[in-house]
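User: For my dataset I need records formatted as: sequence, then structure tokens, nothing else. Please produce one.
Assistant:
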Amino acid sequence: MATPFRRIIHCWHLLWFAIGSIGIAGIATAGAPSIAVRHVDVYREPGRFAGWPANHGIWSWGDEILVGFSRGWYKDRGPFHHIDHDRPEEFLLTRSLDGGQTWAVETPKPHGALSGTSGMRHGMRPPALPEERLTDLAEPINFTHPDFAMTVRMENSNNGVSRFYYSYDRGHSWRGAYRLPLFDQKGVMGRTDYLVNGPLDCQLFLTASKSDAKEGRPFCARTRDGGLTWQFVSFIGPEPVGYSIMPSTVRRSETDLVTTVRRKDPPKSWIDAFASRDNGLTWTLLSTPEPDTGEGNPPSLVALADGRLALIYGVRARPFGFLARLSSDGGKTWSNPIVLRGGGGSNDIGYVRSVVRRDGKIVAIYYFTEQSTAPRFIGATIWNPNSP
């Protein structure tokens, strides 16, 4: 019969093996359950800052996944993002062909440019570099093209003009930058959140400056002519005291939409869910899936094949990490938080974007650090929302 000491050693070896094989999510919130997950490095390089996938977008075609992120140089800036603003920042893409298990970094190329052409300008430029001259779209976009992708970017200002780019070859090359209108707002802060309704019909979910020109208030816009013109449809919720930004939206039926937004009314930050029963014309507050995200983080909402919703988000409060919640009633109520990844070394984490694979597993991509003074990297967590 094994001694208690040997049983302890045996259990320790089993735990070590499990951690090495698939990873075990740490405890990020007291009482939150952990599940078996797999963590993958998407992009990690010494001396670099990599961050903010939610500012760029994510796209998938079966097992092929593409996500954008920002890359700069690491600099310890105390309580601020640890990116050196005195050195260049790049917008990059990284692609997986095996459902998120391995990744390769790419530089966005303008449509029609030859790879390796000397002096080729990027199709998507960071705000620190001179801006491209925005143009108006001249021919309609086919939003239902099988290899279509679109990204929406903003100026580095609450009162700027946003722009969009699109691709017909799964993001290998991009057409743009095309100007988005101001929709009679003081400014539009565009990030990538859209729903395709038909060949010429697409809805965008954006953030406008508030009436005091400060950040921000979410709204829905729509085109029915392939992006040649865009119309303001509706604000999502009343104008906030603090801000309501960065919507993440899913369609549940021909008329029913659900969006989640990042909220802040100092000193509190949280996530709210809104519903539309008339395809975005009007919105009502559904619930508050997460009442406390620490210093604040945007949500990532996806729809599962069985009709449930999955919400993934980072928490910028000790202990720092990533949580998920599930809803079986269209966002009215949510499960207790599920720990996807703990062990964050800083509040400088988050900005998740997620896709659902054909096997039902979710690939959540974010930026992360294990130590407060370590470079930030892009990571992915692959997990099964059907796990007990």
